[in-house]
Amino acid sequence: MGLIILVLSINFNITNIMASNNSIIQNNSSKIKVLIFDGDGVMGSSVIGIINCLNESNNKNLTGNNKFEYSTTDVIDSNSLSGYDVLVMPGGDAPTYLSNDEIDSISIKQFVQGGKGYLGICAGAYAASNYVRGYYSGWGLTPDVNTINEEYEGLLSISTTLNGNTVINESQTNIHMENGPAMYTNNSQIVMATFADNNTGYQNYPAIIGDTYGSGRVILSGPHPELDPVNPKLLSYMVLWCSKKI
After folding, report:
1. What pTM was computed for the model?
2. For the chain, which domains are there?
3. pLDDT per position as a tens digit, 111-121
4. What is the DSSP track for the chain?
């Protein structure tokens, strides 16, 4: 095992939401310990982007007094997860994640079920969903959420829902997509953002989901907030939400 210790449809008023976010977190300061997967199947630029976003959040106080401490690992099991608040699965190759002997899905489920957080971006969202339509089953961290494999790469827009306004600070956001999933669910209360355009062919489908699993929280994001155009505040607020700090 290699451990490396390193110290987004309803529009709303952006100014009010940002003020609301700041007031929510200002008296809830703490250190959030984040474990980032960096093993087989991972997209290196996604890992680097996540690290850069967390560093910028710390340096610019994007989450008030909350600070992130993070490590990377190429093994995920009960030992590597111990002591962390949130597991981040970056972009990469979902089938490789699912077949990787160094990733123990039971430990991930127990980690989240016990009250911790999971953020899955792109491949990390596919892998944690209930089912990838027409292909394979995921780990089921979001039993009511299925994903759709789509092949769009480039910039697109997402629209924030009322349920996503504590995490996403804009009513509409431009964000990078790298073959990430569109999603579908019967539970509209867990949809944080939808695709505002039809670049993927799935306009108005969920782009970002925020759900619970046991006592823990899960965010699945089709788009990449950590890739150009980088959105450190969005990424850091996703982690913050998963850690129950907002």
Report:
1. 0.89
2. 3-242 (3.40.50.880)
3. 999 999 999 99
4. --EEE--------HHHHHHHHHHHHTT---EEEEEEE-STTB-HHHHHHHHHHHHHHHHHTTTTT-EEEEEEES-BSHHHHTT-SEEEE-SB-HHHHHH-TTB-HHHHHHHHHTT-EEEEETHHHHHHEEEETTTEE---SEEEEEEE----EEEEEEEE-GGGTTT--SSEEEEEEESPPEEE-S-GGGEEEEESSSTTS-TTSEEEEEEEETTEEEEEESSBTTSSSP-HHHHHHHHHHHTT--
